[in-house]
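A brief tutorial aside. Many learners find it easier to grasp structure tokens once they have seen a single protein encoded end to end. The record that follows does exactly this for Amidohydrolase. Read the sequence first, then the structure, and try to relate runs of similar tokens to stretches of the chain.
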Amino acid sequence: MTAVLLKGCAAVVTSAYDPVLWDHDILCQDGAITAIGPDLARAAPAGAEIINGAGLFVYPGLVNTHHHFFQCFVRNRAALDWTRYSVIEWLDRIYPIFARLTEDCFYHSAVVAMAELIKHGCTTAFDHQYCFPKHAGSRIIDRQFEAADLMGMRFHAGRGGNTLPKSEGSTIPDEMRETTDAFIADCARVIDAYHDPAPLAMRQVAVAPCQPVNCYRETFVESVALAHDKGVILHSHVGEGESPVIEQVHGMRTVDYCESLGFAGPDTFYAHCWELSREELQKMAAAGTGVAHCSEPVYLVGAEITDIPAMDALGLRVGLGCDGAASNDNSNLMHCVHSAYMLQCLASASRQDPVPPPAAFLAYATEGGASLLGRTDIGALRPGMAADLFAIDTRKLDYVGTRHDPISLIAKVGIGAPVDLTMINGRVVWQNGAFPHLDEGALFAAAEKTLHTILPQTGGL
């Protein structure tokens, strides 16, 4: 693999909590960072690619911990506006659309989501793929890994699934429902085919039943057994309004229900958690269970603002996620860092705990996300860690008055445009407004053509 030297970077943010390194170089080789310091040109091997870092603020690559790539094909549709329907009415409208998706739809929507993530500095993406229409076949996760290979994305596949029929209280159409045996069998197949536990791995897999209200109890029990046997992490939706239903059916709220099944602990993280009490958050902190906070859906869903100050005060592991386009019409994790911070400021007057500083929100999107995914080789810029980073050229009017504090910049000011450079595993995958090794126009045309096989080009559904 070719070595890369980022020379004379204006600022290097190695971690949200470490001092900024001014006027430093970064040397990368074989997918990892080998050195950070001034004047590293003499240490670079012959033939190393030199990137001029003048004006660049360099950061650890963002880590997206919750997404639904397939939902990129259902964006900007007024007929699906959250404000016009109850949650149940909305689900009844959108799930039949999801049920139309083909194998090609899952591939191209993954390309679309990953491209937007990369443009905005994300280098590792976790996708919670729970939509498996029977006609789409059994290779949906495989096609996502194919898309990740194309884009150069470090990819964690959350193999989701739904097993409870609609007749027994779930929101899932029968054409999207699987049996527990089929779900577990395909989880095992995907883990065996793709999961790589080695340092700097580009492919990993998690067992991720969609959510307790849409699955049988046995689905979660078998998920725990499989994950422990294979040494992979667990993930699901928890605490997004379903606790009263779980309490009615199982006699306890969702956190207690999941813990009773063993679906909790340092190898487990939940998405959302906005409805949870402080006592429930304390239980999660004690168990080591993490949270993928998705700030953007809060605007659309109009529910409670997730109590990030309490989570931070209690020591929960917190990461950030975009969530799917059904409740967030973009795949821009960079924007989520800013919106997460601003939302907590909005709610601060009613909170017991103070809003964490802007640096904490950058940490959630980097080291926090790495922790949720069980990774110690991503989330910061240090020798031996993955060469995953993004850079912003701050020699623009947008940044006048901000450049003294690179760490707070993203959360407090916000980055409104694509970054200038994204590197994943030591390879530049986005630079100066283009994917160096890809034809974005051709990818756009292929995705649009596939989209219009299931939805009209204009109007309606």
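Self-check: The first helix runs from residue 87 to 98. If you spotted this yourself, you are ready for the next section.
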